Amino acid sequence: MRILVLGGDGFCGWPTALHLSHLGHEIAIVDNLVRRKIDIELECESLTPIRPIGERLKTWKEISGKTIEFYNFNVAKHYHRLLNLIIHWHPDTIIHFAEQRSAPYSMKSSYHKRYTVNNNINATNNILAAIVESNMDIHVVHLGTMGVYGYGSAGMKIPEGYLKIQVQSDGRTIERDILYPPDPGSIYHLTKTQDQLLFAYYNKNDGIRITDLHQGIVWGTQTLETKLDERLINRFDYDGDYGTVLNRFLMQAAISYPLTVHGTGGQTRAFIHIQDTVRCIQIAIENPPKEGERVQVFNQMTETHRIRDLAKMISERTGVPIEYVTNPRNEAEENDLHVENSRFLELGLEPITLNDGLMEEVSDIARKYSYRCDKSKIPCRSFWR
Ligand code: NAD
Ligand code: USQ
């Protein structure tokens, strides 16, 4: 297949591009390198020493003999470059990672709120409008988030995208499938709920075939392909804006920094290892929706954990204490979360669990590169209110 990977220099995009190239697909990456520029804005870097995109691609060619093309432009702004690329490069599939993905970054100021909304919603709309204008049949695979559902399932298992409802009207019982009611917890998550509507509309009006992957929090760093050479190493964010909770705890444990649990740590979240992320995307590409089918949604997660339980688990294994800090976010103190994820399991996903990879991650990545950590960047300084 010919696959365009939008946002292919990022944490999920880079290992996905390598994995799909390894499988023999033709890959081109589009990325405006804005994530690297945000590192400069935040005066913080990936814990792992990621190499410039040119060196990454040269190394991959050296190691695998395969070429990955690269185009540097902004998908949210340069519509005609995107359209021309689609028309001339002729992708079968477009994978869309090209969004601002940090909830704390999206809440820092009105500039960051506006940037996140403009970037994410325009990127998605440009991709869909360009596919319509190109008149081509292209499967769009989007990296969405579990956060579109909100974090609380009131004892119910969150279904994969759609909720079956029964309404009583004029003495009749009407059954319908609706998009699960969105309940975003940040401006970033809000953009993902808006993406869902764009997908539903373009699917209904233009028949675009779309898969929306509602992904949980990704942990880990390396995949089989990024491990092949240090110059292919994936990024690892640990700072208060981009570091996600489990990778932050692993890095904090490696440098004996008390684990920063927000509030009571009563939030329950869904998790997935980066190796399973790339495998899920492969499965999604190999199982596109049929012509005329509605947007297909997969819950891309493998386990759920309460944040304070995760902290306790890591603390017990490493001896590093827990510090309960004031929660910078506006979120419930406690929530439960039960998630349906049978679609990927039925299609052959064999999940990596926390038990399998946790300590390897602490020693192979977090401890190895701990000399690059700037401790002043660990506390979260973005406040919801
Ligand atoms: P990332 O920031 O590491 O990667 C995103 C990439 O997209 C970056 O390389 C960035 O430069 C590029 N980009 C952003 N806007 C662009 C634009 N307008 N034009 C061109 N390139 C652009 O993020 P990630 O962690 O790889 O996340 C990728 C996707 O997966 C996001 O959409 C995110 O919402 C979703 N996701 C991530 C996680 C996670 O834990 N990391 C969990 C669930 C879902
Ligand atoms: N948290 C802590 N301590 C920390 C960091 C976070 O207790 O040091 C808590 C937060 O308060 C929150 C939870 O951990 O309750 C998760 O925070 P996070 O930063 O790991 O994850 P989140 O903001 O939800 O965002 C991440 C990705 C985003 C993706 C989302 C998937 O950055 O792109 O969409 O995970 S999900 O959470 O399932 O919506």
From TrEMBL:
Protein name, as recorded: NAD-dependent epimerase/dehydratase family protein
InterPro entries (alphabetical): Epimerase_deHydtase, NAD(P)-bd_dom_sf
Family annotation (Gene3D superfamilies): NAD(P)-binding Rossmann-like Domain, UDP-galactose 4-epimerase, domain 1
A Pfam match: Epimerase
Stated family: Belongs to the NAD(P)-dependent epimerase/dehydratase family.
All copies of domain NAD-dependent epimerase/dehydratase, residue ranges: 3-290
